[in-house]
Design a protein that fits this description.
GO terms for molecular function: sodium channel regulator activity. This protein is α+β, with helices and mostly antiparallel strands. The chain is built from 6 helices and 5 strands, in the order H-H-H-E-E-E-H-E-E-H-H. Helix 1 crosses helix 3 and helix 3 packs antiparallel against helix 5.
């Protein structure tokens, strides 16, 4: 009721100050015989719909712009790494790895590559470089160290991108878990079928595909929905086309 009351007050004076006197008689606004007409229910609904349409259009336009920026932001951080991970074709079952070399390097020239980087867009002056030996056989907990290795001195990365952001990625903890004094002699790892020199510690096909689908579908859906509603409300061509179709359907065909 409060909304309708505000709508009545905001309508034009022409709709609310018309007199109910018979034709030929007149009375001023201050006269006791002057009775202003109340706006009709249809006028109130039209006024409420116009206000609703304005604020909804403002929200939809903002959502469409944010969806575009979100999609552009997700391309280098989610979409591109996920596509590279899928193209690498990592084995679904972990193999056996053992550390062959661990170097804690400093300066940019010595950190041309790193097993782990906290941040994917900045250069690092300190890095951990871990190399491993690989046996392409299923990892079994408690199994002995293989006597023969299929590959040696391969670069070992924390994930297919080799980087991430805290708290999910902590390079000091990663180096301690795999190359520290208490690290296991053998551990599970995932190797690529298309890039033989790539071995990673963390890999999940389900999470990679899920992240790629969400990064593509959510911003696109929000953008298309917002743009469609805005075009239907404000585009004259769309309104004419819809009105023409409704007008045509209101008439029966000659056959009927």
């Amino acid at each position: 009721m409060s909304t309708l009351s505000r709508s009545r007050a905001s309508l034009s004076p022409a709709a609310s100050e018309r007199s109910t006197l018979p034709m030929g008689e007149s009375a001023g606004p201050g006269s006791p015989a002057f009775k202003p007409l109340e706006p009709t229910r249809e006028q109130l609904l039209n006024h409420f719909f116009e206000r609703f349409k304005f604020y909804t259009s403002l929200c939809l336009g903002t959502s469409a712009i944010l969806a575009v920026f979100a999609f552009l932001f997700l391309i280098p951080f989610v979409v591109e790494p996920a596509i590279q991970t899928i193209l690498a074709e990592f084995v679904p079952e972990a193999g056996i790895c053992s550390v062959s070399e661990h170097v804690h390097a400093e300066t940019l020239t010595n950190c041309t590559w790193a097993s782990c980087r906290e941040g994917c867009t900045t250069a690092h002056t300190k890095c951990h470089k871990i190399r491993v030996n690989l046996a392409r056989k299923p990892f079994v907990e408690g199994a002995p160290v293989p006597t023969e290795w299929d590959e040696t001195d391969l670069r070992f990365l924390i994930n297919p991108e080799g980087c991430g952001y805290p708290p999910r990625v902590n390079c000091s903890v990663f180096a301690s878990d795999y190359a520290g004094p208490r690290a296991p002699k053998i551990f599970p790892c995932y190797y690529s079928l298309t890039r033989p020199d790539l071995v990673v510690a963390r890999y999940s096909w389900e999470s990679t595909v899920r992240g790629l689908i969400l990064a593509l579908v959510l911003p696109t859906t929000v953008f298309v929905f917002s743009l469609s509603v805005l075009a239907y409300w404000h585009c004259r061509c769309c309104n004419k086309a819809c009105n023409r179709r409704v007008h045509a359907e209101s008439f029966t065909s000659k056959e009927e």
